C-alpha cells in the first residue's frame, strides 16, 4: 500500500495522499492512462495530414496558399463586393410558375443561411483557386460551378455545344470521352479579381447540387467500391484502410477497397472536415462553389435536373441551340439506405455534422430515422 502511494505521489506530484483511498487512486490512474491514450491517438490522427492527396488538388492548394497570402486584401475586397451587390438576375425568375417560385426560394434560402452563419467557421472567403471548379461561356454569359457526381456530364456537354466545340445539338449524343478529355472549358481561376468580379456580376451564375449523402454513396461506389477506379483506390483507398482498419494486412491495404464505414471514418476525421485539401468527388459543396461569396442566379437540383436545365435554357433563350435527351437516373434511394445502414448512429450524426452546411444551404432535410 505504501509503495503504491509513493508511486502515485511521484506520478501526480501530490504530497498528502494518506486520506485518499486505494480505490480512488486506482481510478485516477486508470483515467489518466485512458486520457493519455485518447490524446495520443487523436493527435496522431490530426497531424497526419499528408494522407491521401490528389496530385492536382495538392498543386492547387499549394498555389491557393501562396496566393491567399499575397492577396488577402484583394480577397476581402471580393467579399465586400458580393455582400453589397444586389441580385440582378432574380428578376428574370419572377415569371409566376411553381418552378420559378422554387428557384427564387432556393436563392433566398442560400442568402438566409449565409446570414445565419456569418462570422462562423463557414464564413471564410475563398481564395482565387476556389474558382477552379467553374466553367465560363463568354458568348452566352453563363458561369457554371461544377461539382463532380452531381450530373456534371450533362452541363459540360451543353457548354461544349454552346462554345462550338461540337456540331451536335443534342447533348446526349456527345461521348463522355469528348466531354471529359477533348473539350476545353475556361474557368474563372486564371482571371484577375477585377475581371472575375465583372463576369460574376453580369453573367448568369448557377451550380448543380444533389442530396449530399447520395452523392457520397455514388462517389464511394464509383471510385473506391464497385466498380472503383485503380487511381482512386491507390491514392485514397489504400491509405484509408491502413489508417482506419485495425490490424489491416498488406493484402487488404493493397486492395484499395475500404468499406463504406471506413470511408466515412476518413471523411469525418476532424482534419478532413475542415480542410480544403479534400478530393473534389467528396468535398463539401460550399468548398467548391462558395455560395456565400458568389451570387448565384440559379440552384439546379440533380433531383429535378431535366426541368431545371430546361428552365435555364428558356430563361437564357438557348433552346434553339441546345437540346438534351435526358434519361432519368435510376432512383438511388434504396442504395442510399443500404449503405447508410452499414454505419452506426454515431457515424451518421458525425457525417451529417460534416456536411450540415450543405444540407442547410441547399434545403435538404436530415432525418436520422430514414437511415436506421
Ligand atoms: C459559334 O458559332 C456560331 C454560329 O456559327 C457563331 O455565331 C458564334 O459566334 C460562334 N461562337 C464562338 C464562341 O465561336
Ligand atoms: C463541324 O463540322 C464542320 C463541317 O463539317 C467541320 O469542319 C468541323 O470540324 C466540325 N466541328 C467539330 C467540333 O466537330
Ligand atoms: C432568342 O433567340 C432567337 C434566335 O437566336 C432570336 O431571334 C431572338 O430575338 C431571341 N430572343 C430574345 C428575347 O433574346
TrEMBL record:
Transmembrane segments: 24-43
Main enzyme class: transferase
Keywords tagged on the record: Carbohydrate metabolism, Glycoprotein, Golgi apparatus, Membrane, Signal-anchor, Transferase, Transmembrane, Transmembrane helix
A GO cellular component annotation in the UniProt record: Golgi membrane
Transmembrane recorded as keyword: yes
Localization annotation: Golgi apparatus membrane
EC number: 2.8.2.-
Family that this chain belongs to: Belongs to the sulfotransferase 2 family.
Protein name according to UniProt: Carbohydrate sulfotransferase
Source species taxonomy: Eukaryota, Metazoa, Ecdysozoa, Arthropoda, Crustacea
Amino acid at each position: 500500500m505504501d509503495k503504491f502511494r509513493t508511486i502515485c505521489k511521484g506520478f501526480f506530484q501530490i504530497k498528502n495522499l494518506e486520506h485518499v483511498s486505494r480505490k480512488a487512486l486506482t481510478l485516477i490512474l486508470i483515467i489518466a492512462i485512458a486520457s493519455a491514450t485518447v490524446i495520443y491517438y487523436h493527435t496522431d490522427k490530426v497531424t497526419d495530414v499528408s494522407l491521401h492527396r490528389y496530385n492536382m488538388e495538392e498543386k492547387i492548394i499549394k498555389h491557393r496558399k501562396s496566393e491567399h497570402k499575397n492577396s488577402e486584401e484583394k480577397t476581402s475586397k471580393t467579399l465586400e463586393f458580393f455582400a453589397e451587390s444586389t441580385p440582378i438576375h432574380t428578376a428574370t425568375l419572377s415569371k409566376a410558375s411553381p418552378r420559378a417560385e422554387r428557384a427564387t426560394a432556393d436563392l433566398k434560402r442560400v442568402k438566409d443561411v449565409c446570414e445565419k452563419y456569418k462570422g462562423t467557421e463557414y464564413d471564410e472567403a475563398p481564395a482565387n483557386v476556389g474558382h477552379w471548379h467553374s466553367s465560363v461561356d463568354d458568348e452566352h454569359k453563363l458561369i457554371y460551378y461544377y461539382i463532380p457526381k452531381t450530373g456534371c456530364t450533362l452541363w459540360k456537354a451543353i457548354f461544349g455545344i454552346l462554345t462550338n466545340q461540337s456540331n451536335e445539338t443534342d447533348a446526349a449524343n456527345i461521348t463522355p470521352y469528348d466531354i471529359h478529355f477533348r473539350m476545353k472549358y475556361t474557368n474563372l481561376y486564371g482571371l484577375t479579381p477585377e475581371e472575375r468580379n465583372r463576369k460574376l456580376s453580369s453573367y448568369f451564375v448557377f451550380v448543380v447540387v444533389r442530396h449530399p449523402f447520395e452523392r457520397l454513396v455514388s462517389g464511394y461506389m464509383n471510385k473506391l467500391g464497385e466498380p472503383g477506379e485503380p487511381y482512386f483506390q491507390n491514392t485514397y483507398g489504400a491509405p484509408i484502410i491502413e489508417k482506419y482498419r485495425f490490424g489491416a494486412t498488406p493484402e487488404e491495404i493493397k486492395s484499395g477497397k475500404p468499406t463504406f464505414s471506413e470511408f466515412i471514418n476518413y471523411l469525418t476525421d476532424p482534419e478532413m472536415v475542415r480542410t480544403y485539401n479534400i478530393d473534389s468527388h467528396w468535398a463539401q459543396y460550399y468548398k467548391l462553389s462558395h455560395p456565400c461569396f458568389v451570387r448565384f442566379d440559379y440552384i439546379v437540383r440533380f433531383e429535378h435536373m431535366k426541368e431545371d436545365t430546361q428552365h435555364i435554357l428558356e430563361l437564357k433563350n438557348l433552346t434553339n441551340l441546345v437540346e438534351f435527351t435526358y434519361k432519368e437516373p435510376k432512383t438511388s434511394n434504396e442504395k442510399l439506405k443500404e449503405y447508410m445502414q452499414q454505419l452506426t448512429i454515431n457515424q451518421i450524426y458525425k457525417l451529417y455534422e460534416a456536411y450540415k452546411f450543405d444540407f442547410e444551404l441547399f434545403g435538404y432535410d436530415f432525418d436520422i430515422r430514414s437511415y436506421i
